[in-house]
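Researcher: Here's a chain I'd like modeled. Treat it as a single chain, no partners, no ligands.
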Amino acid sequence: PRVIWVGVGRGADKLKLLRRILDKCLNQIVKPEPQEFIPHITLGRIKGSYDKVCLQTFINTHADEVIGTSKVTKVKLKRSILRPQGPEYHDILEVSLK
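Model: Modeled as a single isolated chain. Structure tokens:
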């Protein structure tokens, strides 16, 4: 694996609905991704080698751990520019949620 992420449990259905609405609104600008949307939070990306046993132990230890809750207060449309030194992110649009 190259991306480390945690899944969203409670509230996942609301995030999936939000994603479907955004896909419909943005379909003239961006094609929706063909794969199913899985609500998650990306913790990090792995570059280079890593200790697979250590990572697997960490995952097994924390697999069913509840981390907490979050409230989504805004949605941002971002542009990402991939550069050799890493990606750059720029806000294009920000909408506050009520």
